[in-house]
Specification:
By secondary structure, the chain is mainly alpha-helical. The radius of gyration is 17 Å and the shape is globular. The strands form two sheets. A two-stranded antiparallel sheet has the order 1-4. It is built from eight helices and four strands; from the N terminus they run ααααβββααβαα.
Amino acid sequence: MSSLAKKLPFSFTSNQAGVILIILHLVGVIGVLSSFSSYIIALTPVNLFISSLFVLIFHPKFDWRFFLFFTIALLIGMSSEWIGVHTGYLFGNYKYGNVLGPSFDGIPYIIGFNWFMLSVCMGTFSNYVKASVLVRSIIGAFLMVLMDYFIEPVAIKLGFWTWFGASIPFSNYASWFLVAFLIQWLYHSQKNQNNPIATWLILSQAFFFLILRFV
């Protein structure tokens, strides 16, 4: 089965979607730094949902296997976050704020979509390395941890989540790697093709979080 984009009743390319992502994140940066920051921050779940939707729509081969991966990635992400929030194991002691929208037992639904989205994007990047499934899974997991490292300070400042402690524990990054590796292994085992939205999305998010981290 081909990508869902080809089944849309109108013409919509991945480059057009990429430009939309850049605009959304640019507006986000400007908005967060303005007097309207509270309104812009409240739109974060919408931004993440649109981003995840683009990843789904433009994936080169959307079939039952990829839908199964999407479902499993979302469940693994949500389950690991539930364990982290309610037990303190895995990531450490933290809780989510109200910024990320509707939640299930303290875990925003959009977080599950975010795990899926980052997994596909970093899976695409690690796919460029001609290596075994194991090696590409390790690289993809490392890239996801690196992204989390840059996201953490900004996410805390914007009220996405709060850590109970003086600093972000090492267990957060170690557990991120383990969970990310599991999802990456599933992704690469399916021999997924590169997602054309990945570069657009990661560059947009990197721009957003790097600017806000150092401003």
